[in-house]
Amino acid sequence: MIDFSGIKTPVYFYDLDILSRTLALAAGEARKYGYRLHYAVKANNNDVIAGKIKDYGFGADCVSGNEIRRVLDWKYHPEGIVFAGVGKTDEEIKLAIENEIFCLNCESLEELEVVAEKAREVNRRVSVALRVNPALEANTHSYITTGKDENKFGVGLPHLKNALDYCKNSPGLDFAGLHFHIGSQIISLEPYRNLCKKVNQIWREFDIPGYGGDMLNLGGGLGIDYCEPENNPIPDFKSFFALFADNLDLPSRTSVHFELGRSLVGQCGRIVTRVLYTKQGVGKKFVIIDAGMTELIRPALYGAMHRIVNVSSSASLERYDVVGPVCESSDVFARDVLLPRTSRGDLVHILSCGAYAESMNMDFNLRTKPGSVFASEGKIVAEEK
Ligand code: LLP
Predict the structure, then answer these.
(1) Domains plus CATH for the chain?
(2) Pocket perturbation via mutation, ligand 1, pick of 38, 42, 216 by most ligand atoms within 8 A of CB
(3) pLDDT at 142 over 80
(4) What is the 43 CA–ligand 1 centroid distance (Å)?
(5) Which of 62, 214, 335, 368 is deepest in the core (most CB within 10 A)?
């Protein structure tokens, strides 16, 4: 058991051994099929975490100019960087072109026009992929579904031919292929099976090889087990990649890429918090912890469930609402959960916080950004304040 006595809470805690095992499995399973992996930096942009992922040979998936700058600082190779986003600014596009990244994933005809113009300005050719909105259901939370008709992402199928022709006729653009990302926290493989069918169909119908496209980027989205993270710390990458190998039917020279975020980092992180107060409300008992929605916005934003454990108490179970200190009624981590009888000063861990927790941290209420600690073999090996 790790000794947190000298550590200021709340703190982002990362188990580097879980991270290593996750990365080794993902990289090993992808290698079997020659698939290339890019880490979706938005999931966690902590230096130590992102540095370790680079060391396992991953490329990077960025969604802003600052993410591109940051991954270059971490020494990710430009030829492994992809850049997505519906609203890239002119400066960000220029930065991507000047650094000769692997590919810009473009999401509209207007964006393609700006990319072509910027390429002309700096007298470079630029590799682009078209992000396609395949009009598919991902069966996840509506806020993190991205591949349906009503979503803002990607080029809709009725407009794809136009965009392909534009790439073909623009001398500065090198058309690489197609990009898809249908959503996040997808826990059944069924949506991916449907995606494969759709990709096979689009590849033929639009004659993607005829346009010189031999790159397919399938995005990310593989979910993690938020209910039982202790029993299931590493996602099933074996079945995930095998599904694509079994269901994609494309020319053999097609290079297949993925952009994984949550599945790589989600389970290696937790938030370690201390109980500030317990309080008897009217008909409810509250545990008020020193972490708030500012450190983990997922429950407030998506109604997301995170497992919560009191590691200081083994008393009999009681029912509590676990809440943070922020001045918002939505600053609630869990309602009516069973915890051992809890007291001021107890350490409470919020599990599965490696993805979209630290990277979504905000300073609302002018709260102090927590530090991060990193552990291996049951001991704290590094600390960032
Ligand atoms: N590629 C693209 C184009 C994306 O938009 C995303 C995530 C990913 C890859 C990585 O997806 P992942 O493998 O992590 O599911 N804040 C939300 C998740 C937002 C995901 C945004 N895009 C949450 O906390 O659930």
Answers:
(1) 16-264 (3.20.20.10), 267-384 (2.40.37.10)
(2) 42
(3) no
(4) 7
(5) 62
Of 126, 128, 102, 354, the C-alpha closest to 225 is 354
pLDDT, tens digit, for every residue of 252-310? 999 999 999 999 999 999 999 999 999 999 999 999 999 999 999 999 999 999 999 99
Nearest CA to ligand 1 atom 7: 184
Ligand 1: which residues within 6 Å by Cβ? 40, 43, 61, 84, 144, 181, 184-185, 219-222, 259-263, 298, 302, 355-356
pLDDT in tens, 21-54: 999 999 999 999 999 999 999 999 999 999 999 9
Q: Apex CA 119: angle with CA 114 and CA 124, to 5°?
A: 170
Residue identifier of the C-alpha nearest atom 14 of ligand 1: 261
Residue for token pair 């079997």: 32
Q: How far is the CA of 172 from the centre of ligand 1 (A)?
A: 30
